[in-house]
Amino acid sequence: MDRELVFAVLVAALCGLVVIASGWWWPSSSEFGSERAMWQRLWLPFAPAMVVFALLCGWAFMEPRDAEPAPMALMFAALPFSLIFLRALWCATRSLKTAHARHTIATVGVLRPKIVVSDAFMSAVDANAMCAAMEHERAHQRRRDPMRIWLAQLGTELQWPAPAAASRLQQWKRALELARDDEARDRGAAGPDLAAAILASLRLSQQTFADAAARLAEEASIKERVMRLLGPQRIEASAEHRVGPILFVLAVAIPLAMLIGLEFGERIIGSLLIGA
């Protein structure tokens, strides 16, 4: 059997299993940190799968082109994870085609982000609120947040159906909006003006939610933002230092796993293929 096909089956079965398991069991902490810390927390569940993938790459580099055939049991085991991967790609592709008509003001576009503003929103706010809202959206544009949101949603879909993965995504989105509010205020936007723009956007978009639960969740998030904007600007405590040791371990573990794959991969994978 072709080495590439066996490699693909092994990646789907082993890496898929590790991603799902990590996404399910990796804790979704109730502790709220900075946007950057929450972004890093989104991707930490993929760390074990990266180590497994490195080991498989080491094995594939040394394995002859006519590799040991993948047993049917292993191919069937890889099928559910392949379907999850295809589902994630389908959801990601579908999200790119989402219509912008429901937006009051937003930054859209994965590769070339741009700001779109509805006529209704422009009529509903005064000049100061409009300027504050634009400053918030410019912060999203500078940081290329539409692409980051798209990648975060793709990563979350790859961990489906883990509830902790969806929770981590929502925590990061919350931190993202608060961080862009702070950035807008740093550039001169007044908190009350930005709060007024947010409330105007909420009033105009109340009819766009598909169900009451989505509307209530959005309203709760906006209430938190508005109360925060009406008070003095705060500096959120950062938790990035907790991620540093994990990144260091990864920097060591990935090359080590590849070396193990080069040296012992045939023995490890061969026994797996025979055992399956």
Specify the structural class: mainly alpha
Number of domains: 1
Radius of gyration (Å)? 23 Å
Helix content: over 70%
- Low-pLDDT segments: none
Note the quaternary state here: single chain
Number of helices: 11
Order of helices and strands: HHHHEEHHHHHHH
* Average residue-wise pLDDT: 85
Number of strands: 2
Coarse shape: elongated
Short descriptors:
about 280 residues; mainly alpha; two-stranded antiparallel sheet; 11 helices; 2 strands; about 70% helix; about 5% strand; elongated
Describe this protein's structure.
- The chain has eleven helices and two strands, in the order ααααββααααααα.
- The protein has 276 residues and is mostly helical.
- It has one domain.
- A hairpin with a 5-residue loop joins β1 and β2.
- α1 crosses α4, α6 crosses α8 and α9 packs antiparallel against α10.
- It is elongated, with a radius of gyration of 23 Å.
In brief:
72% of the residues lie in helices and 3% in strands. With 276 residues, it is mainly alpha-helical. The model has no long low-confidence stretch (mean pLDDT 85).
What order do the helices and strands come in, and which of them pair?
Layout: H1 3-25, H2 35-43, H3 47-62, H4 72-96, E1 105-108, E2 114-117, H5 119-124, H6 127-142, H7 145-158, H8 163-186, H9 191-205, H10 212-229, H11 244-275
Helix pairs in contact: 1-3, 1-4, 2-8, 3-11, 4-7, 6-8, 6-9, 7-8, 9-10
